[in-house]
Amino acid sequence: MGGTMRLGARETVLKKDSLAYRLYGSSSIMERHRHRYEVNPSMVEELESAGLKFVGRNMDSETTGDERMEVIELGEDIHPYFVAAQFHPEFMSRPGKPSPPFLGLLK
Q1: What CA–CA distance (Å, rounded) separates 36 from 27?
Q2: How far is Cα 84 from Cα 54, in angstroms, rounded to an integer?
Q3: DSSP string, 17-73
Q4: What is the pLDDT of residues 16-36, one digit of tens each?
Q5: 40, 69 Cβ separation under 8 angstroms
Q6: Structural domains in the chain, sorted by start
Q7: What are the residues facing 9 on neighbouring strands?
Q8: Residue 11: HSE in the Cβ half-sphere, 13 Å Cα cutoff
């Protein structure tokens, strides 16, 4: 599929003061990926200064060792529920155990 495709389960480390951490109840999660996209590292500081919070990160030891942004949020003062992920939380959802981001949306 090409050298840029990220496939399979990858570890993401969540900041403990994040909504994602509260939803998952853990600072380390495994979620499945299938994409070719990522955040340009040179834009992270500018995006954070505009209010976007990068709360989940992954160290990509397979290639350069670079840190990849995996989960973003907006504060509740900006939006009542804004959580976005680079991975596909629906891939790990099951009828008896839905993915935490989906449960958070329903609450």
Answers
A1: 25
A2: 10
A3: TSHHHHHHTSSEEEEEEEES----GGGHHHHHHTTEEEEEEEE-TTTT--EEEEEEE
A4: 999 999 999 999 999 988 888
A5: no
A6: 6-97 (3.40.50.880)
A7: 32
A8: 9
Cα–chain-centroid distance for residue 74? 13
**CA quadruple 21, 26, 27, 32: dihedral sign:** negative
Q: Strands 67-74 and 52-59, how do they pair?
A: antiparallel
pLDDT digits (tens, 9 = 90+) for 47-103: 999 999 999 998 765 555 678 899 999 998 999 999 999 998 888 788 888 899 989
pLDDT band per the 50, 70, 90 thresholds, residue 1: very low
Residue written as token pair 């380390």 = 28
Q: Is the pLDDT of residue 104 over 50?
A: yes
d(C-alpha 79, C-alpha 77), whole Å: 6
**Which of 94, 103, 89, 104 lies closest to 33 in space, CA to CA?**
89
Question: Rounded CA gap, 4 and 42, in Å?
Answer: 19
